[in-house]
Design brief:
Elements (H helix, E strand, L loop, with lengths): L24 E4 L2 E4 L3 E2 L5 E2 L15 E4 L2 E4 L3 E2 L5 E2 L16 E4 L2 E4 L3 E2 L5 E2 L9 E4 L2 E4 L3 E2 L5 E2 L9 E4 L6 E4 L3 E2 L5 E2 L14 E3 L5 E3 L3 E2 L5 E2 L6 E4 L2 E4 L3 E2 L5 E2 H5 L2
Antiparallel strand pairs: 1-2, 3-4, 5-6, 7-8, 9-10, 11-12, 13-14, 15-16, 17-18, 19-20, 21-22, 23-24, 25-26, 27-28
Length: about 260
């Protein structure tokens, strides 16, 4: 009931949805809220959950992943119904000695195994190129050590008197000054000729001391001492000083006369 002079209020317009939601849903604020199993702006189509199905359920010999069979060893094929035959096939282990996959008759070996039938145990890092692999264990070449033959090893560890280097074909010791030998265990003897030990006039003892040849004296055997220091050579013979005699002036005449 309206009073005099009142303006009539218009009725609210009903919400309108596309195609009336095809009779498969409710219209809420102009949007279709579809019944179960229906979808679309107007609920015009079925919403069916598609389930990927593998051929023959993978014959019970594999797993179905997104509609594709991932076969167990030693089977293959779209439905895992075919037995693969590769080297190393046994009833218990399957193909490839049980250590790889059979692909078109060829073994693709698992890590750590090699060979046509995947029966050979490989070594880590192929022994670094410095050894032989035997049953998965590295037998290192001379001068190399470690589980993968990656560590250099010089004779006697260079005796603590040098460094071991692999710059050469095989590791060698680079000796500190005054030391020599393949393992740097021998002291160098003094010399006045870097190319010759004991100046070329003596033998170097292991303790680094020169043993001089005849007529040479000094720490480095560089001093020529003719006639035992008691005379001088003339025409290959000793001219001895007074009081000495002998081919090398080795006789002390005065001393011997007092005996």
């Amino acid at each position: 009931e309206m009073g005099l002079g009142s303006t009539p209020m218009p009725a609210s317009a009903p919400s309108i949805c596309p195609a009336g939601c095809s009779g498969r849903g409710a219209c809420v604020d102009g949007v279709c809220v579809c019944d179960p199993l229906y979808a679309g702006d107007a609920c015009e189509r079925f919403a069916i959950l598609m389930i990927a199905i593998c051929p023959n359920d993978c014959s019970g010999r594999g797993s179905c992943v997104n509609g594709t069979c991932v076969c167990d060893r030693p089977y293959h094929g779209l439905d895992c119904s075919t037995v693969s035959l590769c080297p190393g096939h046994t009833l218990g282990a399957g193909n490839c000695s049980g250590r790889g996959d059979c692909v078109n008759g060829t073994c693709v070996c698992d890590g750590g195994w090699s060979g046509p039938d995947c029966s050979i145990s490989t070594c880590p890092m192929d022994c670094s190129g410095h050894g032989m692999c035997s049953n998965g264990t590295c037998a290192c070449d001379y001068g190399w050590r470690g589980s993968v033959c990656g560590d250099i090893s010089c004779p006697n560890g260079c005796s603590g008197n040098g460094i071991c280097t692999s710059d050469a074909v095989e590791p060698v010791c680079i000796c500190d000054p005054t030391w020599t030998g393949v393992d740097c265990s021998m002291r160098m003897c003094p010399t006045n000729d870097l190319a010759l030990s004991c100046s070329g006039h003596g033998a170097c003892a292991q303790n680094g001391t020169c043993i001089c040849y005849q007529d040479y004296v000094g720490d480095d055997c560089s001093i020529l001492q003719e006639c035992n220091g008691r005379g001088s050579k003339r025409c290959g013979f000793c001219d001895c000083e007074e009081g000495f005699s002998g081919s090398e002036c080795e006789v002390d005449v005065c001393r011997d006369s007092r005996k």
